[in-house]
What we know:
Elements: E1 2-6, E2 15-18, E3 32-37, E4 40-50, E5 64-65, H1 74-86, H2 91-98, E6 111-117, H3 123-132, H4 134-146, E7 150-151, H5 162-171, E8 175-181, H6 202-217, E9 221-227, H7 233-246, E10 250-254, H8 261-272, E11 276-279, H9 285-297, E12 302-305, E13 317-323, H10 341-352, E14 355-360, H11 365-372, E15 377-381, E16 392-397, H12 398-405, H13 414-425, E17 429-433, E18 444-445, E19 462-464, E20 469-471, H14 487-497, E21 499-500, H15 506-515, H16 531-538, E22 544-547, E23 550-551, E24 554-555, E25 559-562, H17 579-589, E26 599-604, H18 609-624
Parallel strand pairs: 9-14, 9-15, 10-12, 10-13, 11-12, 13-14, 16-26, 17-22
Antiparallel strand pairs: 1-2, 1-4, 3-4, 3-5, 6-7, 6-8, 17-25, 18-21, 19-20, 23-24
Helix pairs in contact: 1-2, 1-10, 3-4, 4-5, 6-7, 17-18
Amino acid sequence: MFAEVAFPISGFQTFTYKISKQLKPKIRIGSRVKAPLGHRTVQGIVIKIKHSTSFPGKVKNISGLIDDISIMTPELWKLINWISDYYLTPIGQVAKTVFPVTLSTRYTPPKSWYVLPKSIVDDQSIELIKSRAPKQYKLYQIIWADDKPIKVASLKNHASNPLQVCRALEKHHLVTLFEKSSLPDVRGFTFDPIDKEVVFNTHQKSVVDTVVESLDEERYAPFLLHGVTGSGKTEIYIEAVRHCLSQNRTAIILLPEISLTPQIAGRFRAVFGDMVALWHSKLTPGQRSWTWKQICVGTFKVVIGARSAVFAPLKNLGLIVMDEEQESSFRQDSPAPRYHARDVALMRATYEGSVVVLASATPSLESYFNHLNKKINYLHLPERFGGSQYPRVHLVDMLSDQGESGKFGQIISGLLQDKIEDRLKKSEQIILLQNRRGFSPVIRCGDCGEIVMCPQCNVALTYHRNDGQLLCHCCGHNEIKKQKPIDSTWRKLDDLFEMDVNGDGRDAYRREFTKLGGGSLPSEFTERYPEYSEYFKTHATDTIYQYSLFLGQHRLEMMCSVDEEETPRSLFFRTSPAHKVLLNLLSCQALRSFSQKSDHILSLIHISEPTRLGMLSYAVFCLKK
């Protein structure tokens, strides 16, 4: 018997291998195997099994199986083939994306030695080690004091070789030494569970009833859940998952960024306990391997993660929820296959006979178009949950503000400055959104107007005032690495070249904020990590955080204050060439889950008069909606 095997290579060619008698009853279509390819052994996937081959030469044998249990389902195999055809990608590369080569169901967690003191011991043995082996006696006293299993490796501070000492104590029948598997901690990326009593309003109950009815029918049913910010979509997800689990089916929750994962996971784990698994790029190799194996064997029933979680090998999948479905982060740009998780989720739900919910406060044009063409059912949540109101929003025209104040080139409006000073006096929190790193994103010659460009990438270099560097954020090229920092360097450059270094980057905001009496800013965090959420939980007063929002020459700032007891949720924006779409997203999504006492200030700067009027009128329309 022979098998056609596809490898993760750039070509569509497959290779024929012979199946040995030992592997014949185990190999199926979709099985991951190891096979010789040239002078190396490569992991591939079986795409076809046949009884004969037309190849006249010697056919090599398959070396072995990757997994000890079957992980491929007919539905998942159909999905792999569809991705290969739709995205024009070799099936071997698709299989590598769906089933990463570093993961296997044969994974076993590493074992560690533990020591436990015996309850009944011989006093003579204790006296013997006390007189002849004082180091053993000292370590025994520490073990006896805990009276519970202790990891031997944790005793290295008390003995250079604790395992050897513990073995000596075991020979004297004073302790019990044993090995135990060390399971990876998969709860470290989760906020504490949040228990809530939720009473649905009329609109929420209608949405839940519709989704539950489709789950009962056990057929493919796509929904576009269009809910305003704060309308309680998460609670609808939880109720739908609860009903799905009651049918002995599984569920996938897709999020645009892993920084959202801790909050959602904490809420889900408060309801479903240890049935919830997290899947994202921040997991360690051990955590990924253990989590993936438990998903394969059916321990986890709910998977929460970023776009790659759409391939989770869950059996009997009943529900897929995609939160903030309009986000561009659901699209994979590289490596191949360059798929969109929304399309993959819809196709997987088609094959699985599942319900898929695409949720957003600002649906993507594609999803809304599919709704208009009757391909997706439309669900609407027009009201915020609990009767909460939106924060106050102030739209500031920076050109007019600079004209009135006479301070041309300022980056913080008068209204924003007043609000910052007021919040600092009240010891409340402040968030400033600005995605331009450094002090000045463009360095321009005052005489000829030439812009300092990166010689490798042909993009403008950014001036970092703190260390006096011109840095390319694409390749890391540095113009003045060894120059003295800050003013002394640039006074010389200004005299020689009359360089314009007016700043509106993060460093400039730091400088302005310090002038306002806010003190030093916290270190910058990357928006792909959840540290900023923890920062706001642990720093209750006088804090500021810089986040990303910039489109061309239209700079939009946002200031919001939050009471000490409240933690702001993360903010995400879909970048678009159309500034009207950006304003719409800002007016809807940026107001997520903040206190109604907050103030949001949008500043528009460096725009022509006709465009400025168009943005102002559209912004007013969006804010009314």
